[in-house]
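Long-time lurker, first post. I've been practising inverse folding by hand and with some scripts of my own, and I keep getting stuck on stretches where the structure tokens seem ambiguous. Below is the full token string for one chain I'm working on. Before anyone asks, I'm not after the true native sequence, just a reasonable design that respects the backbone. If someone could post their per-position residues I'd love to compare against what I wrote down in my notebook.
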């Protein structure tokens, strides 16, 4: 066996942890499933950021890193207002009425949003919501003025209520979809996904109606959508937290409604359903002065949602979109007001994302469901303080470490292959209990295509504390090439990490142009090595030092 070393230098504060050791074996000859780009889905609350300076820049970067069209989901696409963005708010003024109550449609802002996506080859996961002021059954108060640190319930105003006229709502949906077909073409709009509302379960948040009210709205929405474009794809219900009894029951009630209930719009039985969506969130909190993540909370939601879908014979093969799949719930709650969110700027967010996505693939395999996408509800916040601790991919146009995880995923294609690690937490252990033992979760996800093989290796723990780097032996078998090029990339305290560079600058809130250029460079995925290797009997072995919350990516080309 040809042996060579990947030396990864790192400077960490050594805590009271013993040296971690792990052996990871990857068999590139043993396929386990498709390397579906389930990660190529993103979303955010504030749709008007889409066409602003930093929004367009980030969307261009996201589109460029993905080998497939990226799907984008945004709230407030039908909310009334003048288009001025704010935290947890956006508006398009798509629908108003004249003094006689006649509809006035205005697609200027929605077109600006969708134009930005389509220009970059991106696809809307077009959210039909929220309720325009003129259609709300309880319109006042309407626009909220929520700020981080204030009660979250403050955001739920007149836009969250059922319509005062379901036929007018249906006409709005029909006109919007018909307009999109005329503007972008039938073939383009057929490639989109449409959805109704956001997190309607609970009755006192995003949806102020009952589950029956939601099903009625879905009936009118689906009928209008399919009349405008019979081949349009529509799904729901985007409940959040299906590991909880309330969300689980809402999801089941909706799925049953689409099978056997009388349709409120057509009078027929059932309603069309092209994909199923639910949300899954983690739960970080502060323990002994540091952040402790709740990856098990998120994985339990995913597991429960998959289990519910799999229990319906009619729907078990329908595509699933995890419409929001994140470490916690409020992207606009910065670490100043929510210290448990201090994980967001650094490598904790990166390693969590790698470890969580790997388990999404495994859970989909276990339940034998069709996981189409998992939306990272993380974008950018225009004209906000640098590294404020929002759950975002970039700050003021500078990429944060977590975006480089998606750059790594963007290089993975073909088929997933078998991975074993003597220190990767078993699927149901991490789902049920997280990573709370002394040992970290050291694992990998790997893939192969015709002339390349790739592997992402992480060292994750729920506790955001420092410790000694782990010694990792990576053993790769089943490589068909004889002479290969080995490329290495990494994310840690010293690589692909704009946050650490910014802190070393003194954390400037008004960085100079030279500093911004330096930060932009530091925000890119850094290649740390390239070498030519000879493969004997299909085997390669790599030895590395991998810091806690670090990620190494290996690409083998032949």
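-- Answer (accepted) --
I ran through it position by position. Result:
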């Amino acid at each position: 066996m040809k042996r060579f070393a990947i030396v990864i230098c790192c400077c960490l504060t050594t805590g009271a942890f013993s040296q971690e050791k792990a052996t990871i074996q990857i068999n590139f000859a043993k396929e386990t499933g498709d390397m579906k780009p389930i990660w190529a889905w993103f979303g955010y609350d504030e749709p008007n950021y889409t066409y602003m300076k930093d929004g367009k820049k980030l969307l261009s970067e996201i589109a460029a890193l993905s080998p497939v069209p990226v799907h984008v989901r945004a709230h407030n696409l039908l909310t009334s207002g003048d288009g001025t963005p704010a935290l947890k708010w956006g508006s398009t003024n798509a629908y108003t009425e004249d003094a006689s109550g006649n509809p006035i449609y205005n697609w200027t802002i929605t077109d600006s949003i969708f134009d930005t996506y389509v220009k970059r080859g991106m696809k809307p996961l077009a959210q039909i919501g929220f309720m325009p002021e003129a259609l709300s059954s309880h319109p006042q108060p309407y626009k909220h003025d929520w700020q981080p640190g204030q009660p979250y319930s403050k955001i739920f105003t007149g836009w969250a209520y059922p319509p005062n006229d379901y036929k007018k709502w249906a006409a709005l949906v029909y006109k919007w979809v018909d307009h999109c077909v005329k503007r972008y073409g039938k073939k383009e709009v057929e490639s989109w996904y449409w959805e109704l509302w956001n997190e309607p379960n609970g009755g006192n948040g995003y949806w102020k109606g009952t589950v029956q009210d939601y099903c009625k709205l879905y009936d009118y929405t689906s009928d209008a959508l399919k009349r405008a474009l019979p081949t349009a794809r529509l799904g729901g219900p985007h409940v959040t937290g299906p590991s909880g009894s309330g969300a689980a029951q809402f999801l089941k009630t909706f799925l049953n409604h689409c099978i056997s209930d009388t349709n409120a719009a057509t009078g027929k039985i059932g309603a069309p359903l092209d994909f199923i969506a639910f949300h899954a969130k983690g739960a970080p909190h502060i323990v002994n002065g540091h952040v402790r993540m709740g990856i098990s909370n998120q994985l339990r939601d995913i597991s429960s949602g998959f289990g519910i879908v799999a229990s319906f014979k009619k729907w078990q093969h329908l595509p699933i979109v995890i419409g929001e799949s994140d470490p916690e719930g409020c992207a606009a709650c910065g670490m100043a007001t929510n210290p448990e969110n201090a994980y967001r700027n650094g490598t904790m967010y990166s390693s969590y994302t790698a470890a969580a996505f790997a388990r999404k693939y495994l859970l989909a395999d276990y339940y034998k469901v069709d996981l189409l996408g998992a939306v990272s509800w993380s974008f950018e916040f225009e004209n906000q303080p640098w590294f404020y601790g929002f759950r975002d991919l970039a700050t003021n146009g500078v990429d944060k470490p977590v975006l480089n995880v998606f750059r790594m995923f963007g290089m993975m294609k073909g088929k997933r292959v078998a991975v074993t690690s003597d220190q990767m937490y078993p699927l149901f252990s991490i789902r049920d209990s997280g990573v709370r033992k002394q040992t970290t979760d050291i694992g990998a996800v790997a893939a192969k295509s015709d002339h390349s093989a790739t592997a992402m290796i992480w060292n994750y723990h729920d506790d955001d504390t420092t410790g000694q780097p782990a010694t990792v032996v990576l053993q790769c078998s089943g490589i068909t090439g004889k002479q290969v090029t080995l490329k290495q990339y990494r994310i840690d305290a010293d690589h692909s990490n704009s946050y650490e560079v910014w802190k070393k600058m003194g954390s400037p809130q008004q960085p100079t142009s030279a500093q911004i250029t330096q930060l932009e460079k530091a925000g890119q995925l850094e290649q740390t090595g390239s070498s030519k290797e000879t493969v004997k009997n299909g085997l390669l072995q790599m030895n590395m030092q991998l810091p806690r919350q670090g990620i190494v990516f290996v690409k083998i080309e032949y």
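A couple of notes from the structure itself: The first helix runs from residue 53 to 65. The mean pLDDT is 95. Happy to go over any region you disagree with.
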